[in-house]
Structure formats: C-alpha cells, structure tokens
Task: structure prediction
Amino acid sequence: MQVEKKPYELLFRWNQDGALQGAHIAYRYVIREDDGSVIGDREEAPKEISSETAAGFPLADVLDQGQIDALVAKAAADQEREVAATARDAALQAQQVAEQGLVGMLSDLAASRERIAALQAERDAALARVAQLEAQVAAPRPAFE
Result:
C-alpha cells in the first residue's frame, strides 16, 4: 500500500495595492494498492504556507523571489506581532496590579489621616485638661484656721 501526497489547491491573496498578502495550500492524499489501484482519496483543509513551511512544494515555480520574500517577511511580522501583543498584555496586567495597589495605598492614607486627626483631637483635649488642672493647682487656696 502507498500513500501519495500531492498538491491539490493553491490559493494566493493580494491586497488592494497588488502586494501579496498570503497563500494557502491544500494537499490531496491518494491511497493505492501495490498494483496501483486507488483505494482511497482525501483532501485536507488548506494550510497557510511560507517558504519555511512549504517543504517539498515548488514555490519558486509559482512565485518570484519578491513574492517569496514577502511571504517570509509576513511570517516574521506575524511573529513580531505576537511577541508585541504578549508584551502589551503583560504591561496592561502590570498596570492593573499597580493601579489596584495605588487604590489600596490611597485608602490606607485616608484611614491614616483620619486616625491622625482623631489622635490630635485627643491630644488637644488632654492638653486642655492639663491646663485646667494646672490652673486649679496654681489657684490660691483659702487658708484653714
């Protein structure tokens, strides 16, 4: 039994400016008996191709070098975009954590200011009581006979 993998369908897309935007290929698998008779035939779903992933497919027969370079550049740009998106997501998450920490610190600061105000009020009341007691001690006392 033999399985043959053959190109079945090739799709190229160009953007409105005429630059190559992408390419997909679908393969057809033919299963043959040893005598050559076909016992099975299956098409696979199209897959994106580039010069790196197109081993065995003669891209140079269909594309010029500029188009192959464009596919390579697109694959590199897609990879860079993924790296940048991952970095962006990490930065956004760090920003959210920092903002949550800031909210907590601001809440703690407000509570601390309230506590300081309460302690200052207690201190002022204590100082007033001390002044009152000092005035009582310093006041002349009537002599006892």
Notes: Residues 96 and 102 are 10 Å apart (CA to CA). The chain is about 55% helix and 25% strand. The first strand starts at residue 2 and ends at 14. Residues 2-94 form one domain.
